[in-house]
């Protein structure tokens, strides 16, 4: 291959991950079309976390973050299940000073609109195009492997990179990005068959209007500017997570409980709202203040939770997976959106004028080597934190907490590992190995050599 060239890129899925990919690749100089299966490209749900490792890319891409009306988090607070008294607090006051970027909490729809404006509006590169009512199906998913190859060509021909949509329309691209979520059709087309099981916990989500809560004389949790947790210290599935968004005007509650008390594994966002009695039923001994908040909850929706084993690969030929399509994870590290944003950033780097040599398949092979280990690491840590909040980033280093206990102190996931990561260093190391060049950088898998982690591990030190 002779060098950089502009590509025609097709992004399947117009959610947060898809818009991020379109934005990053547009800025890298490529012509991007986003294909959305429904008649609009939007997001459902409520809050979404964006820690420094995600926020940094929003700034690098020139996104107007203020449009997302975020809450800048100042603390992580774990409270006693019955009394609401703080059990473990992780202070984020010096977070921006340490890592260069704040920890944002967005309303999902606002964040999506913010990214969509950046992907399709004014700015560097050709504005991305959005095409709605274009669905891809992996019709061969449940067929034997030898038949799957025949069926694949009805959806994405991996030899010609031609996408065939349900409506009969076809489109050919140089690069295809599958950003179509946890139920990804593109994943099936690539021949990946997830090993998965329903989580042992279920979740109901509810929104609470801060003004309404205050008028009723309830605690104004928006003043804490914090991610707040009730429970999670006892090795049980019962846990309440509160995340403020929309500048604190909305309180987004995620309510976890054992699956035998309510199984929503086959349901999805957008279904008919559940009654408030169903939300309150699992929690007879919960802190009365938060229980009163939940009693005025609106838009009560089930969130299906599945535990996926890591996938063996996330690309084939000129097609790759991004976000939940490539590494779905439990929500308990608040890193799902950040991992999708990092995926998009990796594509933007690998296909920019400095690094892309014209070989799409080679660049995607490096993308897989850069992204799959890091996302898998977070995926595993999120599964641990589901039933032990001490495994969650931040709380994982609060060793003075009376109830502190982790599976393996040397394997905890820490803020240092997430926010000291240098993707450019990771890309350069992996590209050099792929191309047979000498790597002289000071990073190992994107982490600075000599970095001391709270787990006691020093990057680059011999075991």
UniProtKB/TrEMBL annotation:
**Gene3D superfamilies assigned to the protein according to its UniProt record, in alphabetical order:** FAD/NAD(P)-binding domain
* Record carries keyword Disulfide bond: no
| Segments forming domain FAD-binding | 172-379
Which key words are in the record?
A: FAD, Flavoprotein, Monooxygenase, Oxidoreductase
Which terms does the record give in the GO molecular function aspect?
Answer: FAD binding; monooxygenase activity
The cross-references to SUPFAM superfamilies, in alphabetical order and at most eight, read: FAD-linked reductases, C-terminal domain, FAD/NAD(P)-binding domain
Specify one Pfam family. Answer: FAD_binding_3
Q: Return the InterPro entries for the record.
A: FAD-bd (IPR002938), FAD-dep_Monooxygenase_BioMet (IPR050493), FAD/NAD-bd_sf (IPR036188)
Q: Member of which family? A: Belongs to the paxM FAD-dependent monooxygenase family.
Q: Which PANTHER family does the UniProt record give?
A: HYDROXYLASE, PUTATIVE (AFU_ORTHOLOGUE AFUA_1G12410)-RELATED (PTHR13789:SF172), MONOOXYGENASE (PTHR13789)
Instruction: Please give the name of this protein.
Output: FAD-binding domain-containing protein
Q: Which organism is it from?
A: Penicillium cinerascens
Q: What taxonomic classification does the UniProt entry list for its organism? A: Eukaryota, Fungi, Dikarya, Ascomycota, Pezizomycotina
